[in-house]
Design a protein that fits this description.
With 126 residues, this protein is of the alpha/beta class. It folds into 2 domains: 47 residues, Signal recognition particle alu RNA binding heterodimer, srp9/1; 52 residues, 2,3-Dihydroxybiphenyl 1,2-Dioxygenase, domain 1, CATH 3.10.180.10. Helices cover 21% and strands 32% of the residues. It contains 2 helices and 7 strands. A 4-stranded mixed beta sheet has the order 1-4-3-2, with helices on one face. It has a 3-stranded mixed beta sheet with strand order 5-7-6, covered by helices on one side. It starts with 7 loop residues before the first strand and ends in an 8-residue tail after the last strand.
Length: 126
């Protein structure tokens, strides 16, 4: 039976990506399948949450698939965006926002874009 796994993010600096995503999402690097080109990050219950895979290709500026990180309020969104930027995320120049967005676009230290979505205002139109 086919099952959906977990998202995998391509990165050039595996150690830097492990440090960022583990701190960003309170995850733990797992020894399972770990090697020079792969690391699995797990949640508190040990469930696989995110894969990090060594990649030489550059991040896509407007990827068709990306991560959405969810919060419940605008205040929580602001606090999390500030925390993620302090961890090394950047705020890319993004011209695709709708008139009243429920999301903020960030990029991880590798340049992979992701969104912090305020579920209290979701969904955005556009």
């Amino acid at each position: 039976m086919l099952r959906l796994g977990f998202p995998v993010v391509g990165v050039t600096d595996l150690d830097r990506a492990i440090a960022f995503w583990a701190a960003a999402l309170d995850l733990t690097p797992s020894a399972e399948w770990a090697n020079a080109g792969w690391r699995t990050l797990t949640g508190p219950d040990g469930a696989r949450v995110l894969g990090l895979m060594r990649s030489d290709s550059p991040p896509e500026p407007r990827p068709r698939v990306h991560l959405d990180l969810l919060v419940d309020t605008a205040a929580e969104q602001t606090a999390e965006v500030d925390r993620l930027v302090a961890l090394g995320a950047t705020v890319p120049d993004w011209d695709g926002y709708p008139a009243e967005p429920d999301f903020v676009v960030l990029a991880d230290p590798e340049g992979n874009v992701f969104c912090v979505v305020d579920l209290g205002r979701a969904p955005s139109s556009g």
